[in-house]
Amino acid sequence: MNITVKTLNRTALLALSPFVGIMLWLLISTAAIELSQDVPSDSIFEEEVSERIYMTEAAAGLDQARDTAVHTSKSIKTEIELYNKTNAEMNAIAKTATAQAKRPLQIYDSNITAKLGKPAATINTDKLRAQLFYLKNDSFRSYAVKIQLKSDDAMKMVMGGSELGKSMTTLEAVKQHKAAVGVNAGGFADGGGKRYPLSTTVMDGEYVSGFQASYSDLFFVGLNDKNKLIGGKFTSKEQLDAKKPKFGASFVPVLLKNGAAQQIPAKWQTSPKRAPRTVIANYKDDQLLLLVTDGYNEAGSSGATLAELQTLLRGYGAIDAYNLDGGGSSSLIFNGKVINKPSDGNLRKLPTHFLFFK
Questions:
Q1: Which of 51, 77, 197, 216 has the most CB atoms within 10 Å of its CB?
Q2: What single DSSP character describes residue 298?
Q3: Are 249 and 197 in contact (CB under 8 A)?
Q4: Residues 165, 28 within the same domain
């Protein structure tokens, strides 16, 4: 009986021992987990400290960056204000300098204008300024147009038609090409019912009938590629080419060169002595002067002598001056109106015309 009870007790203990072991393991594990939660290891502590230091440093860096940005913004704003102020001052200085640089030219222009009198009419555009003057002379009536060219295409010479030998009046040329001002240009020779330009003639940089060396006091006058008046006697094509002529025509004689009166050929002193005249001249600032005189006939009893024109032109301050075809050829058109009184009673048909555009 006792043996049986002991045997049962042992059997029960063996059966329960696994469960007791599990309970003990759970108790020990729980205690270890709680211990690990309550007391952090050295590595975890160090990580937390490092993270806190990093966050502190980052916050300090952000504060410094913000302060730097504010300072930089203020500096940039100050620099911009200084730049704008300096730029405005430099612009003002540049405008003043430009105005001062132009002042001598303005004074010069006022002086030469005053010698001509008060303009009767003015055309002023981006291309040119043309001023018309009615002049008072003792022996004849005359008219002048002072022209400042502002554009490369403000002036050109045109022919009397699409074919060499054709001719038209200066008024017709003005209307056909829609010009503002027009004046007759070089001399001509008639032949076979046609009217041909005299001697060397240049259109758009090309020689119309080839180059002819100056003879019998003939000269060439026109504009170069810089819109400056060129003229004189040329013995070779290379000599004229060096002046880079853009257009021009020929006639006789040269009246002024560098402000000095030139010798008038004997023939032109008396044949005719007085007549309607057309002259093209320039000033030292490259403005042009057109001078046209009236005459009642071509017999030499009215109009201007070439010597009188030389005196007038020098008095007006002209530098170089060239006598263009005169007599019945003299034609001055301003703003669509014939200004002079043609000696033929009507405008003559001509092969070449100087036109000015607005």
A1: 197
A2: S
A3: yes
A4: no
What is the three-class DSSP state of 162? coil
More confident residue, 115 or 20: 115
Query: Of the candidates 311, 335, 330, 334, which has an alpha carbon nearest to the alpha carbon of residue 321?
Result: 311
Q: Under a CB-based contact definition with an 8 Å cutoff, are residues 313 and 246 in contact?
A: no
Q: Determine the Cα–Cα distance for residues 211 and 207; give it in Å rounded to an integer.
A: 7
Do 35 and 125 lie in a common domain? no
Strand partners, 229: 223
Residue 298 has pLDDT above 70, yes or no: no
Q: Domain range holding 10?
A: 2-39
Of 45-49, 121-125, 265-269, 324-328, minimum mean pLDDT range: 45-49
Q: Which two tokens stand for residue 48?
A: 């937390």
**So what's the pLDDT on residue 316?**
97
- 203 domain residue, yes or no: yes
**51 occurs within a structural domain:** no
Its pTM stands at 0.75
CA nearest neighbour of 307 among 285, 288, 323, 320: 323
Is 236 within a domain? yes
Residue 227 pLDDT: 96
**Same domain, residue pair 229 and 348:** yes
Tokens of 220: 């060439």
Instruction: Share the mean pLDDT of the chain.
Output: 86
- Reading the block at residue 134, the tokens are 């009615």
The total of structural domains in the chain comes to 2
Q: One-letter amino acid identity for 210?
A: G
Residue 246 included in any domain:
yes
Q: Is the pLDDT of residue 37 over 70?
A: no
Tell me the two tokens of residue 213.
């060396």
The burial class, CB within 10 Å (0-12 / 13-18 / 19+), for 346 is: exposed
Whether residues 133 and 258 fall in one domain: yes
